[in-house]
Design goal:
The structure is a single chain. The chain has strands at 2-5, 17-25, 28-32, 37-41, 44-48, 51-53, 59-65, 71-73, 77-80, 86-92, 97-101, 106-108, 117-120. The strands form three sheets. It has a six-stranded antiparallel β-sheet with strand order 6-3-2-1-7-8, with no helix packed on it. The protein folds into two domains: 2-55, no CATH class; 59-127, SH3 type barrels, CATH 2.30.30. It has 131 residues and is mainly beta. The protein has no helices and 13 strands.
Amino acid sequence: MYRAKVKSSDPVISKRWAYGGKATVGGKTFIIPDDATIEDVDGEWMLRGFVEVIPASVGQSTGKRDYNGRVIYAADTLKSCTTKRILTVAWADSKCAFVLRGDRHENLMAEWDLENFEVTDKPELLQETDR
């Protein structure tokens, strides 16, 4: 499962997230929701319901949940509920695993107890130092 911000010139729509499978066609990135359909239109197969998204916002589900039960995706920012630690979720090809990155470290996500972290929608927190 992937998640990404919808690509739109409308300021309200551009703040929405799309969820589903991911496809890149002709240099554009799309999310294909579970309710998308494939239809035969005059002998040609057409996919209906796909959503163009901002490529830099695409994140894959880690399969883990935060303190509030919210699904954690790659590129999410996590904030500790007990300290001021701020971490970013990323995929590390070299480790073939999701990792948590702070200012001074990178650890496998599987090594962390995420019950004390919550996903934050405030990217400005990344400018703070990891404590």
